Each structure stands twice: as structure tokens, then as C-alpha cells.
Task: structure prediction
Amino acid sequence: MAEQADGKGAGDDQFDLVILGGGSGGYAAAFRAAQLGMSVALVEKDKLGGTCLHRGCIPTKALLHAAEVADSARHSEQFGVKATLDSVDVPAVNKYRDGVVGRLYKGLQGLAKANKVTLVEGEGRLVEPHVVEVAGRRLTAATVILATGSTSRTLPGLELGGRVLTSDTALSLDHVPDKVVILGGGVIGVEFASVWKSFGTDVTIVEALPHLVPAEDEACSKAFERAYRKRGINFSLGVRFKEVSQDENGVHVTLEDGKTFDADYLLVAVGRGPVTSGMGFEEAGVTMERGFVVTDERLRTSVEGVYAVGDIVPGLQLAHRGFAQGIFVAEELAGLGPVPVVDSAVPRVTYSEPEVSSVGLTEKQAKEQWGDDAVATYEYNLAGNGKSQILGTAGFIKLVRRVDGPLVGIHAVGSRMGEQIGEAQLIVNWEAFPEEVAQLVHAHPTQNEAMGEAHLALAGKPLHSHG
Ligand SMILES: Cc1cc2nc3c(=O)[nH]c(=O)nc-3n(C[C@H](O)[C@H](O)[C@H](O)COP(=O)(O)OP(=O)(O)OC[C@H]3O[C@@H](n4cnc5c(N)ncnc54)[C@H](O)[C@@H]3O)c2cc1C
Result:
């Protein structure tokens, strides 16, 4: 192909923007850039929507909803209703789940069309800083966004396959296992633990760190552990996995302290690694670190005109962070000067029964930053919240503020506490003072009222709590 003065081949497909990867980060960038008048090619080797829509956020939340329905039937007598749980029909649950995913997938394809984004199917490779090649087709653009996402990680020597599952293969099971060991007590591990326990599986989680959901404020982790213990979910903390063997009957897991577990399956949920190898990033001059793409806060890589968004950028691996980064880059390219996406401002939810949600700094992080005396905290117990009593959930909302200053962290544990993160993130990101939030009226009786009550108490005027 003839080279032009700008280095592009004469027959190249030219766009303003080429995006490699159509997951949360990639498609958000594509839609926003197209809305801002750019011509956009979005390259996807599998399905538009990526991990979140097809193997992550959405299918797992559908399973959690089915799990909640099972628990409602199982515990119905507690509310004076006599229902019985006959069984969980996993193929039917999967059909419901796939229906949800299918409708959203269709909607997303419609949005790509409506936004006039050119979808290019196939595996792309960055062959030059501004050229992506897909099955011999060269797509050139002034700007390229790398958004190739992440995949399940494993431990050295721990081979995946057969009865050793990843979250992907766990989603394709067509039955309720009798017994499962889950390696990793982070968000994905506890999510599957919650679903399986509700479906009737005997679950044991193995976590090398001292707590479940170890990234959360320690008070939340401890409350979460109490709730899991009460649910009969077993866990082994602070001890490392040693080895696993498998045969036609199941898996045999050994920990470093000598403990052994037999189960039907081992789910490996030890984190997710970037999908970046063999795609030409390093050859094009992009600086990498442990497989992740290094960017500055404006998501620029080391190569001019090449950006990266989503799970391949070190930090929180969350769909909404990817969406926000995608929108950020599109607006940056359009010259709108958007505000960078800062991880500490990104809300986090652990979906489970109970849920954990948080935004901003933990108590420990705040004290490390400003000193013990410069940080004040308050825990509002959900026992004093009418709607939580109605639901029968325990937990709390914990506020972390700078003394005489704004809220810097909000943490919650309890059923449906993920729904409270919307207001919490406004409070923390707008740097509100508890006294200001205390002026806002929260509807009664809602769980959201607990957010108001916590701030009333921290502002020195408790109503349904002891100051
Ligand atoms: C079980 C599970 C549950 C989760 N639940 C949540 C949740 O509840 N909330 C939340 O916020 N996050 C959740 N996540 C995380 C979330 O899914 C990710 O943070 C998000 O999908 C990252 O988006 P991304 O665009 O960076 O990458 P991805 O969604 O992984 O998309 C990358 C895309 O790039 C494509 N691709 C890769 N290489 C190429 C190539 N060479 N050519 C063409 N295409 C390529 C892939 O096929 C893929 O579609 C969950 C993840 C898992 C696994």
C-alpha cells in the first residue's frame, strides 16, 4: 500500500478516532465522541458491551436477584407468609439472566447505530501508533483509544479448567453445586458465594488477607463477616492456598496451614489482569507496567494521540469508572476540558446479601493522611432505621469527616446499601459538611433516611440514635 506524507496508506479507512475494544470504556468513548461530531470506528472481537454486559455486572446481578427471590421464599414465614422453596431450576434462571443481557445488548447495538459509530468486527492490533489493523483492514485515525479490558487471573501453578472455574465458566454451570470452594474474598468471590449459598450450596471462601472484602473500611469488613457467618457461609482468613487436584468426583483443595477441603468446584476469584499482550502496544512505544497501560491523569499514554481507558489502566476495575474515562477522553478530544476521573471519587459497591458500598477514604486512610486527631467518624446503626427493620437487615452507615471539615468517606453495610451510594458520592465529591447534609430532608420510612440520620448525629443533633 502506498504511503502518504502523513504515514497513512492511500487505501486506509480513515476516522477521527479508532477505539480498540467495545466494553464499558470503549463504547462510552465511542458514543460520546460521535455525539461530539467525530467519525468513530469501534473494533470489537467478541460482543459489543464487553465483560460487564456479557460476563460481569449484569449477568451476576441477575443471578443475585434470583438468589434474593429464593431467600424470600425460604424465609417467608418470618413475615407471616407461608411459601416454600421447592428448588432452583438453574437453566430457567440462566434463561431469565440471558434474556436481560440480550435485551440490553440489542439496545446497545441500536445506540451504536443511532450514534453512527462504525462497528468493526474482529481482532484488532495496533500496528503503528495511529493505525489499527483488523483482518488486513487498516483503520487510521489521529487518535486511538486502547480499551481492551481484563480477564480472570490465576495464581502461579494453579491451572484453570475442568472443575477449577473462573467467573466466566461459573456462569455457564447448569446446576446448583453441592459444595464449592472460592479462592478470593474480594468483590467477585463474595458475589458468587452469596448467589450459591442462596441457591443451597455449601460455600467456603479462602482469603489470604485478614478480612473478606479487604479493600473496604475494616468496620464494614467485620460486619460483613458477621453477616456471612450468620448465613452459614464458611471462610478461612489469613491463610494462603497451596494446591488443588481434581478428578471426576470433584476438587481437593489444600491450604498452606494444612487444612483440606473437598468440593464439587473451586472458583478462582483472585483478581483480573489486563488484556494487552500480543496487540502491538509495546512495539508502538506505549509504556506498560505489569501488563497494564500507563497513563497520566488525562489518560494519555506515552505515545502522542494514543489514550487508554477502563480495566487496562491501573486502578479500580469497575464498569462505571470505564464509562466515565471513556466520556472523559471523548470530551478531552473535543476540547471541552473535562475534569479527570479520580479513583477515590468513584463509588464502589459489593453486590451480595448483605451489600457493602463506599466512596472516598476509609477511616484508616483518612487518619494516615491527616492524623488521628484530625478525623472524626460516626456509625449509624440500621437498627434505628424503620425500613431496615421492616426488611430485617442489620448493618450501619459510617461517616468519615475531617474535624471541622467536610465528609471524606462514606461506608455502608446492610441489605440494599448499594442503593445509598448515589447520595453518598454526591456528599463526598461535593465536599459537603455534615451540618449541610443534616439540613436536607430524607423521606420516611426509607433506608435513605439512615443517611440523613447519620449526618444529623455527626452534626451534633441525633434524632433516632445516640449522638
Ligand atoms: C463477574 C464480574 C462481575 C462484575 N461486576 C461488576 C459490577 O457489578 N459493577 C462494576 O462496575 N463492574 C463489575 N465488573 C467489572 C467490569 O465488568 C469491568 O470493570 C468492565 O467491564 C471494564 O470495562 P473495559 O471496557 O475496560 O473492558 P471490557 O468490558 O473487558 O471490554 C473489553 C473489550 O475489548 C475486546 N477486545 C480485547 N482485545 C481486543 C482486540 N485485540 N480486538 C478487538 N477487541 C478486543 C473484548 O472482547 C472486550 O469486549 C465485574 C466483572 C466481573 C468479571
